[in-house]
Amino acid sequence: MRYFTIFRVAFRALRRNKMRTVLTMLGIIIGVGAVIAMVALGRGAQAQVEASIATLGQNVILINAGNVNRGGVFSGFGGAGTLTVEDAFAIEKEVPGVVAVSPEVRSSSQVMAGNNNWSTSVMGEGVDYLNIRQWDLDEGEMFTDADVRAAAKVCIMGRSTASRLFPDEDPVGKTIRIRNVPARVLGVLKVKGFSVQGTDQDDTIIVPYTTSMKRLSGATMLRTINAQAASADQLTDVQNGITDLLRQRHRIQAGRDDDFMVRNQQEIADARNAATATMTALLAGVAIISLIVGGIGIMNIMLVSVTERTREIGIRMAVGARGRDILLQFLIEAVALSSTGGLLGILSGIGGAKLLTIIKQWPTLVSHGSILVAFLFSAAVGIFFGFYPARKASQLDPIDALRYE
C-alpha cells in the first residue's frame, strides 16, 4: 500500500466519526493550551521580577545591618545597628572596584506642603545615590556634597509624592515641612515604578543623610549602605572585599557570625527567579498531566476503533496490505489527532495568556520555545499512546479478522 493511500485512508477514517474525533482532540487541546498559558504566566512573572531588580541600578551591592543576640534573644535583621558612616567611607576608599557609595537612613513621616499633607518614606542618602540607582531627575537638580556636609534643609522627591503634595503646580523651589523641619525642593525624579517588594519607589523624599540623622530621625547608626561595583565581573570580588573589611572594622573574630549582611544584585535576582521558576515548573507540571490524560483518551479511542474496524482490517490484509501498512495507518490517525489538537491548543494557549493579561492584569510572556515544545510533546503523545493500538491492529490474523462480527 502506497504511503499516500495510507494517509488518505487514515484521514477518511477520522472524518467518518467527526464528533468522536473532536472530543478525542479536546484533551490534547486543553493540555497544550494549559501548558502554553501556564508557562507564559511563569515567564511573565520572571520578566517582571527581572525588571524590578533592574530598577535597583547597575552592579549594586547592598550592605544591611544584621541581627544581634542579646541574652538569647535575636533582634532580627537590621537590629544590630553596627553600620556607621565611617564604614561607608572606608568601603569607598579601601575596597578595590567600588566606584560609588551612599549611606542610607530610612524613615517615614507625615509631610506637609501648604494645605496638603502626605505620609511617605524619607530617605537620607549621599550624593552618589542617584548614580548607583541609575535614577535620573525629571526636573531640577540633586543636592551637593556641600549640602551633605552642612546637613542642608533640602530634598528631592519622587513623582508620586510630588503629585500628592503639589497636584497643580511645579514643586521645584517650593518648601515642604518634614516633621516640622522646612526643606526646599531641589528636584523631582523620573518615574521609577514598583520595587521588588511591590512598593511604589516614586512615593519617596530623599534628603542628605546628614540632614536625616541630625535634623529628622536623630539616628546615629546606619541600617543600609548602598555600594556600586565598577563592573558585573567584579561583583563577587567587591562583595568579598566589603565583607572582609567590615569584619575587620567590627572586630569580629574567626568563627563568629557577621553583624551585617552583604548581598549583590545578582543574588537578589537569583533568589527571586528561583521562586518564579518553581511556580512555573509546578504550573507546567499540572498542565502536562492534563496532556497525558488527553493521550490516554487517544489510546482508548484508538483501541475502540481497532475493535470496530476488525473486519475492515481483515479485508485490507486479504487484498495485500501488510502488517506495517496497518500499523502505519493507525499510527497516522493517532498522530493526526494529537497534532491537530496540538495546533488548536497552541491557539487556545496564546489566547488564554492574553486573556489573563487583559482580565486579571497578570504579566504573561509567550515564548516560541514553549510553543515548539508543546507541539512536539503533543505529537509525541500521539505516537506513544497510539503505538499500542496500531500494533495490536497490525498483528490481527486476517482469517480471524474476516470472521469477526
Count of the separate structural domains: 2
How many angstroms does the end-to-end distance come to? 25 Å
Strand content: 15-25%
- List low-confidence stretches: 70-77
Number of strands: 12
Tell me the Rg in angstroms.
Answer: 33 Å
Structural features, described:
There is one protein chain. Helices cover 56% and strands 18% of the residues. The protein is of the alpha+beta class and 405 residues long. The chain folds into two domains: 3-51 and 271-403, no CATH class; 83-258, no CATH class. The strands form two sheets. The protein has a six-stranded mixed beta barrel. A two-stranded antiparallel ribbon has the order 2-3. Helix 3 crosses helix 8. The chain is elongated, with a radius of gyration of 33 Å. The two termini are 25 Å apart. Mean pLDDT is 84; it is low at 70-77.
Blueprint (SSEs and pairs):
Blueprint: H1 3-16, H2 18-54, E1 60-65, E2 69-70, E3 73-74, H3 85-94, E4 98-113, E5 116-125, H4 129-133, E6 137-140, H5 145-150, E7 154-157, H6 159-165, E8 175-178, E9 181-189, E10 204-208, H7 209-216, E11 224-229, H8 235-249, E12 260-264, H9 265-308, H10 310-318, H11 323-360, H12 368-394, H13 398-403
Parallel strand pairs: 5-10, 7-9
Antiparallel strand pairs: 1-11, 1-12, 2-3, 4-5, 4-8, 4-11, 6-9, 7-10, 8-9
Helix pairs in contact: 1-11, 2-9, 2-11, 2-12, 3-8, 9-11, 9-12, 11-12
